[in-house]
Write a structure and sequence with these properties.
Strand content: under 5%
CATH topology of the largest domain: Penicillin binding protein transpeptidase fold
Helix content: 55-70%
CATH superfamily of the largest domain: Biosynthetic peptidoglycan transglycosylase-like
Length: 236
């Protein structure tokens, strides 16, 4: 009888584990609605990797800046480059996902369709890599963020934790590292150049832009105008 009670106790604990994890994730997202993170999970992961690999040159540069202390051109450039339907969707751009699927089905390269909300969830709460578990958690955190945070908070978090170069995270660190100024002094051209490296900041450089970054910067500047310029931000 005592053995049976023991099994039941362990079964109850096992069944409570998913509930506890759900509650923990809700508390995490609710807390970061108001509290600025000292660092993100991706930052912590990269710092740990550098330490394990003996990379003595790695230096994490990150300094939080509220959205009103960042030039509007930078969040606008990020939206133009990464997620032009940011103001309209609720975390997932189904049209972009369908277009990516059709392109892949026709033999084209599989391109990402992650929204700014999804990228923020991944950067803040999760680890790098590709797996169905991580994608599932990314979707869950995206839903929570969209339910509990206003769009301005999601965008503010994104431009503060996005990686713009090796060890360079967020608008303020990027502005200082690449242009020698604060984030609120960035020009539209500089903001577009920072957004141009977002797909692969370890490969592309905002300080020494190659042909791809220069071409992509021009495209982003045109897209910034096409979506309505800084007036777009008023929709959020």
């Amino acid at each position: 009888m005592s053995r049976q009670r023991g099994w039941r106790r362990w079964l109850r604990r096992l069944l409570m584990l998913p509930v506890a994890l759900v509650l923990l994730s809700v508390v995490q997202v609710a807390t970061l609605r108001f509290v600025d993170p000292p660092l993100s999970m991706v930052m912590a992961e990269h710092r740990l990797s550098a330490w394990l690999e003996g990379d003595d040159d790695f230096r994490l540069r990150y300094q939080w800046r509220d959205l009103e202390r960042i030039a509007p051109a930078l969040p606008l450039a990020a939206i133009a480059a990464e997620d032009q339907r940011f103001a309209e969707h609720r975390g997932f751009d189904l049209d972009a996902i369908e277009k990516a699927r059709e392109q892949h089905a026709r033999g084209g390269r599989l391109r990402g369709a992650s929204t700014i909300s999804q990228q923020t969830a991944k950067n803040v709460f999760l680890w790098s890599g590709r797996s169905w578990v991580r994608k599932g958690l990314e979707a869950w955190y995206t839903v929570l963020m969209e339910l509990m945070w206003p769009k301005q908070r999601i965008l503010e978090m994104y431009v503060n934790v996005a990686e713009f170069g090796h060890g360079v995270y967020g608008a303020q660190a990027a502005a200082q590292a690449f242009f020698g100024k604060d984030a609120d002094a960035l020009t539209a051209a500089e903001a577009a150049r920072l957004a141009a490296v977002l797909p692969n900041p370890r490969r592309y450089s905002a300080s020494s832009p190659g042909p791809y970054v220069q071409r992509r910067t021009g495209q982003i500047r045109r897209q910034m105008r096409q979506i309505g310029g800084e007036a777009y931000l008023d929709q959020l």
